[in-house]
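Narrative of activities, Objective 1.

The group set out to show that a structural description can be obtained from nothing but a protein's sequence at a throughput compatible with the screening campaign. Below is one input-output pair from the validation batch, recorded exactly as produced.
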Amino acid sequence: MRKLTLAAMLAALAAGITPATAADLRIGLQEDPDVLDPDQSRTFVGRIVYAAMCDKLVDITPGLEIIPQLAAGWNWSDDGLTLTMDLREGVTFHDGTPFNAEAVKANIVRSKTLPESRRKSELSSIETTEVAGPYQVKFTLASPDATLIAQLADRAGMMLSPTAAAEKGLDLGLAPVCSGPFKFVERVQQDRIVLEKFDGYWNKDAIHIDKVTFLPIPDTTVRLANLRSGDLDMLERLAAPDAASVKSDSSLQYAEAVSLGYQGITINIGNGEQAKNPLGEDPRIRQALDLSIDREALNQVVFEGVFKPGNQSFPTSSPWYDKSIPVPVRDVARAKALLKEAGYDRLEIEVQVPNNPVQMQVMQVVQAMAAEAGFDVKLKATEFATLLQEQSAGNYQASQIGWSGRVDPDGNIHQFVTCKGGINDSKYCNPEIDALLNGARQSTDNKVRKAKYDAASKILSRDLPIVYLYHQTWIWALSDKVEGFTAYPDGMIRLENVKLN
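Output recorded for this entry:
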């Protein structure tokens, strides 16, 4: 048996494959993350890497309850203007820097003041951050903010070593230093990100993996083939048409959770010179594109009915969805009439698309549907991190992109459509929308918030800076050697209590 094992290992090495140890978990990602700095980054897969590397002040349960992580507890003042957090003691960052109230203050200040930070709008309600004790911090707000705790359950609440942040500046994203269960080892762009177990982790008894390697593999077929061959131990975003095949394979496991987010087409309305085109300048043309799409047919053709058609930032199952604006029925005649009213019989538009088979198929279906209404849609396949860079810079006309979703409804809408929103690459700006969404942040009454989100949705369904298409279901496929994985609605891979046989 020993000789056979050695022979197998030598054969693998000769083929250029490094055999994994029993505690080396290999995870296939759909894209390569952007910069690994929670203040600068925006990719979904980046958040998956952070889940292994960067603890947050608070986290969520699979049932979307907010629970302590680095914060041991918290309370609000009666007027809703002061949030006091007691912090977990005995926590250190990967470079040995102690985690305490000073570290939290440094992180919040960085997120709010770093010129490149995308977290500014998420933390805009915080006026001052005060160290109230070695392990207690007080946030004083300019006005009540019902969303703040939920924001701290994501990148805005991820804690970086203040020592490393001060020394490295923007280069921190090249070798991040956090306090999570795994510490950064190396990154090779478009190839791998390697983390290893942090022996000083505060909750180390829950960690049973020694090393995690994230491998970006955009092609869903190749990603699944790598899992079947044993070169991966798990993958995220299994293609919906492959679900039945995985379920019937005794060597694999299947897991799923309904997403909090959406997929759509973001349109450049005011982001530089490339916004100066009919699609960006005339809402009637965006309405025509919206009406040309049969969302249920799209769901059936590409996803075999597994996902949910959508037309708002919230899925139809969400209590925040405005039922008075149902998913539109395709109306080619009306789409043609709107295009004609805007002065066009046919119009060419370009949409950049992530270079993976699923998103390309989505847009090929949209392309065929839109053609019948008078649109000649050109598709530009783009590596995902590059797509985001082009979008931020305004070097695009339209972009097929989505959002993984957040626990609080604010996280799905505010930063994308308010005038100074941190991820408003459309540069859509409507003071009425700002007033509604800022007002929704300030109320703790869900009825008041719902009314404001409904009013905003009605305006956005007319202006259409984002043409929403569908809400996905997160699907994972895993080797039968993986134990203890729990599916979460945010799509993250949490490695506490995960083991490899």
